[in-house]
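Support case: user asked for a sample of complex input and structure output to validate their parser. Sending the pair below.
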Amino acid sequence: MNNSESTEISPDRSAKSIIEAALFLASEPVHKSELLDLTGLGEEKLDEELDDIRRDLSHPDRGLRLSENNDKYCFRIKRELLDMVKYLAPHQDMSRGVLRTLSVIAYNSPVLQKEVVDIRGNGAYDHIDQLIERNFIKSEKEGRTKLLSVTQYFLDYFELNDLDELREGESVPQEYL
Amino acid sequence: MNNSESTEISPDRSAKSIIEAALFLASEPVHKSELLDLTGLGEEKLDEELDDIRRDLSHPDRGLRLSENNDKYCFRIKRELLDMVKYLAPHQDMSRGVLRTLSVIAYNSPVLQKEVVDIRGNGAYDHIDQLIERNFIKSEKEGRTKLLSVTQYFLDYFELNDLDELREGESVPQEYL
Amino acid sequence: MAEETEEEAEFAGREGSPVTVQDLTRPDWRERLDEYTYSTDPWDVSVTELASGFMRELDKIGGKNLKLSGRMVLTCAVLLRAKAERLGGRDQTDEQEELEEDLNTGFWGYEEFENDSYIPELELPLKRMSERAVTTDELSQAFSSAVEVYERREERLEEEEETPHSWGMDLESESNFQVKLQRLYRKVKQKLSRGKEVLFSSLLDRDTKEEKFEKFMELLHLQSEGKVRCKQERPFSEIKVELTEDEPPAEPKTESAQKDE
């Protein structure tokens, strides 16, 4: 194998190969600073490499896409393939309870925290914290409670253009929307 | 690229992209028959696609390799990158406690549950539940307790042909076997 | 309650192999308890007898085994919960499953040790965790489930409100429970007008387990609201109820007691 062209720190390992290995192996999204350390690249150069990877992945023969959230990167399955292969990974990256709470927020976004808690019970406080931590939702103060709404990252994660796309074709009774 | 020739079942999804998505997502090696079903290809054509993928991965800009074992396929990190990135998956996918409980079961398989608990403490119940859930071990009723033994999946996972291979080269004092 | 010898301190049960207090000292105690509670109706297990046996056992070892007392408390709690669930006659719902999903670690307490057996190390191959993203279909299903769970809970609350004698298990039915609390509080005050303290047994309307359970729950609530104080001089002896100092007993005339409410 010819490795001649690679990176400053490791002549036999290219930056792209390191990024691919890191994002493949890590169970959590990898922070940009981590990738800078691993590859030994400057930020500008790293961005270029990430753009290259993004471009490579856009090829129809590739099954992954590069996802970015708050300067953290990970690979995800292209949405159009997920339904086909999802049975191979039984574990979702979210527990059932958290997902239900997220769904209530998404279908009603923006929605008052107390309304979410009313529907989902007290456990929802914990779920809401986790969802904010993961940048799926954001919270603004609204009188004595909080107003919750989904983030751009939520839309990216589900590859939605807007919430209407989610709500369309939903057979949920109107009073819950 | 033109995908018109790729798969019979999904004109907008290339076979390569499906294979990549499947191998990326699956937590364990994927059997060839699974890939045949998923892509809708014949065996010969699938082999060609797998060869293509293998060739693509051999490029120094790629961080993974295609591993094959008993007609099962998975991606693995290229060996020369492993030391750099393995800290990103430090916890492995099993806690040390669960691993030690599994060790006790594997080296003694088949073994009574109560003997395992006797050695490992009542935390072992939790470990045993997890190990059954993950299909590393199976349990049969044996009077008031249960008889535990390792599964074929355990052997595949640890890349073993049989338990003798595990026990060989182990200087386990005879009284514990 | 029949006196038991130390050797016989065991869960009183109808069938299945009884579990002795001694068994709680063994590493596989949870398995034995699981098996026992699985095969035995929890109503057939006398927590009182079990606890008496435990105390004798504790005397014997001079109270030095803290793990054992922890297990005993947990055992009694599990049995009580099993009884309470039976009493409520509730089915396992999604909500409970969800709760258990959240709680399932550590419920039994956790001990991990290694006895002096030789334990070789298995070497794990380097594997990655594979978790996948949620699909929009799953998000939509989750929403339907959340709505279903919510509706079921609302229906249940309505049913419980419509059933006047549901034995105080309907804690969620706040207004119903508050009425019962007021009724009991009034009763305590009326009885106290004739003495310094009231016996728990005199507050019961019926001599049934359900009634005792219900009244005891209500008393605990009154105590936590600071209205009454419950005393028990010895374990398992009669519970005595008195008013807290700032809550004067009712006048003999019941009218004023009612006005109080």
